[in-house]
Amino acid sequence: MSDIFSFNGSSNAGWSQPKPVLSNSEIKDTVPNSMLRVKPPAWPRASEPELVRHYTWLSRRNFGIDTGFYPLGSCTMKHNPRINERIVNLPGIDRMHPLQSEHQIQGILSIFYEMQEMLAICSGMDQVTLQPVAGAQGEFTAMRCIQEYHRERGEGNRNKVIVPDSAHGTNPASAAMCGYEIIEIPSAKDGRIDLHALQSVVGDDTAAMMITNPSTLGIFEPEIAQASEIVHSAGGQMYYDGANFNAIIGKTDPGLMGFDAVHFNLHKTFSQPHGGGGPGSGPIGVKSHLAEYLPSPLAARRALIDSDPRGVGDGFWYTWESPEKTIGKVQQWHGNAGAVVRCWAFYRRYGRELERMSEHAVLNANYLRYKIMNPDSEVVSRVHAMPLDGAPADFVMHEFTLSMIELKNKVGISGKDIAKRLLDYGVMAPTLYFPMIVPECLMIEPTETESKEVLDQFAKDFLTILTEDPEIVKTAPHTTDVGRVDEVWAARNLILRHPSTSLDN
Amino acid sequence: MDQLPNLGREAEMLSIMGLNSIEDLFSHIPSEVKRTDPLPLPPPQSEEEIWRDAQHLLGSNINLDSRPSFLSAGLARNFVPTMVGMLATRGEFLTSYTPYQAEVSQGMLQAMWEFQTMISELVGLPISNVSMYDASTSAAEAITCAVRVHNKKATQKDTVYVSNLIPPHRMSVIENYLQGAGIDIKTLNHRVNGCLDIDSASVAHGSCAVYVEQPNSFGLLDEGLLELKNIIGENTALIVGVDAVSLGLVSPPGDWGADIVVGEGQPFGIGPTFGGPIYGIFACNEKYIRQMPGRIVGQTHDSNNKKAFTLTLSTREQHIRRHRATSNICSNETLIALMGAMHMSLLGPEGITVLAKRVAATTEATKRALISINGVELLHPDTHNFREFVIKLPGDSEEAVAFIDSKGVIAGLPLGRWWNDMSSCLLVGCDERTSMSDISSLAIAIEDWIREAKQ
């Protein structure tokens, strides 16, 4: 095991820097004596070769899309094109400050403007801000705009937000952060939205409903327009959680479904690499009645006039603009600009053909579902129990859920056991136990960037696991860097940092 | 369109499912919500064309490295070691998701546990999470966290005190994050010398939290803050926002009573990158552990009793606790924190000290050069500064910055943009890369402007 804190070379073992421009004695007085640091942080003392090897070793103990199939439902783990990484290393993005004056940032502003426009077009919204840096922050931002919209109209008493019980956890968490009371409505038996349940909870205290479509079961809500109508007639706003946007681009859009606000997960749909947990990017789009509340500033443009300096050559001058009744800031600058630029490069690859991306995401999901659920009769005869559909549907959208409850009842293999055993087959586990309305749930999203062969192999491996000795499955994984990890012990003992604090100075 | 391995194989896959057309898969979308017209977007491009457009558009920006720049205001024009970008973008790190499956994510989990240790060491507090979005969201969530912990015993319920000198964009983030929790934000004022009016800080006693910054937004190192914890008392959280690099020289807030330390991690790991992605530091003592936001990695063992790491304390988080979660944060800035950890490990204990000295030196050298100019005054003469300081100009600083810009120098931030009554003030920011020649370019440009303004 490579331990970074075991590197403790000489005090000049590390990385050399130019000398300070003033002498030590001149620097000494820049910090009051009482405030001088006594002991440096106990960071490793390591040379570049040692660190390169350490981090390379760590990287080899980590599974990414580049390593293998990553069918993590709801997370849209698609291939990350490498040109995007090359682009964000250009000094025109990497070495830029968000407070530079407009004439120094025409190029980046034009990319911001183009992204705002593209996202508005794909979502059927009127105005987009790129400032929120994660999906959850996008949800929070949109709910803040909706909150101010109601207050402005003298309807600040609207204090309830409705979410289906299948919603992502961030939905209720974001609304609660705005101070809203959460009303959770149960899904209908088939997993779809229950319009009666919705009708029974809306009223003059309804601020908004938050919902994703396709739902977290991967199924398109056919009655979404009716749901919008119910919420709108009660005076509430409709919020679209864009986590599943990969399924619908060019086929339908939140505007057509009657939504007033939407967030995008650029790190899902538009391929910002997820980097082990972030960065993400969570722009939001809104209809015109909410646009004046958006965070400030937005990218805008006007026709170039003679007195302007040279622009980017498209005949426009790009500017920042502040919406009239802006809620202010949610991130301190302009959002994750680096992610926005990567996603710009990603969308340019498809342009008006973005629809093909969604078609292939849906094709792959349906194909994989079909292959898992319709094996040869010989295979069926050997499995302990077949998975059940998480929700009945002829077709799913970009993802699907399976319930492993029969397997659990019959031989005691849980959904988690299946997930862990899949790791032995060299693939990432699907999303586990979500949505909570499906017992022993596995949520599978192949994305459009997997080949038919990868899907065939996954279906085959998945079904093989269902035939295996239950003991092998329950004790999996067996071939990974470490065996099944004891999460309970971690939570009870809370060893959250390296114990070594002593530096030999 | 290069990202679709099954392009041209649709019919084969559909026929296995007994279907004829991809449209069959979308047949359950009701016609009233179906999109009928194609997306009004440009045609697809090849990688080569995208690279050409990116070079053109991003090349038309003026980047900070292309000229002397004194614009900082919370971001650093740093130098990131080459190793950092090369190793962090290894596909296994770059293309992984949040490490829910610990058995195949030990690399990132261990790297984040090491990151937590480095941050803990840097700020002098035992616990760190694996990052927030930025310094402002860290500060905002530190305050809501402190209210959850202290409100029960607080005599000033749902009340926090915030320095009146924090930058307006940060204040706006804090207001957005706090309003839903019904928290009352009161301010702590400063004296004319730019330091906190420590004598009046006792008003915060009995409230849930105090948020101050060290150095403050004028770059001032405020000795008075060392007394603040004693004044506000045990049951009021002292939350300190830091310039992470300064801690190479300046004593860590954990050593002088801070309960939570937040700040911008960007100087370690990534360029200013137009303001994002960057990452927020969040560290605290044990009292806050069950109320803190964000992911945390803990050490444990596997089924063979082998050392291992895993995400822990997840019951605070939105995917478990839903609307009762401590925060809605899900995606964070892990990859940037990883870059930060790599940068910090290359620096080492001595390197961070050298780095802080370099910034202290350029700050001091720039200050000396500018105050020798006739007509330029330091707003706060007898104080200590790190990275930034404020000068008063004989005229509007916005005009000065525009003039100096025309001479090819980025002079800093005209403070009238932040506070109306400071329109003649300029916030000058320095960094480890500021050279003596940059300093003289700025000084000459300011002299030129003063001369022209007089005519």
Sheet having the most strands of chain A? 7 strands, mixed
| Total DSSP E strands of chain B | 15
Q: Identify the CATH architecture of the domain at 355-489 in chain A.
A: Alpha-Beta Complex
- What is the gyration radius of chain A calculated from CA atoms? 26 Å
Across the major sheet of chain A, the strand order is 1-7-6-5-4-2-3
Based on the structure given, which CATH architecture of the largest domain in chain B is correct?
3-Layer(aba) Sandwich
Terminal CA distance of chain B: 61 Å
Radius of gyration of chain B: 25 Å
Low-confidence stretches of chain B at least 5 residues in length (pLDDT < 50)? none
Main beta sheet of chain B: 7 strands, mixed
CATH class designation of the domain at 355-489 in chain A: Alpha Beta
Tell me the structural class of chain B: alpha/beta
Average pLDDT number of chain A: 96
- The multimeric state of the shown protein is heterodimer
Strand order of the largest sheet of chain B: 1-8-7-6-4-2-3
> Looking at CATH, which topology of the domain at 355-489 in chain A would you report?
Aspartate Aminotransferase, domain 1
Could you say which overall geometry of chain A the principal axes of the C-alpha atoms support?
globular
CATH superfamily of the largest domain in chain B: Type I PLP-dependent aspartate aminotransferase-like (Major domain)
Report the CATH topology name of the largest domain in chain B.
Answer: Aspartate Aminotransferase, domain 2
Helix content of chain A: 25-40%
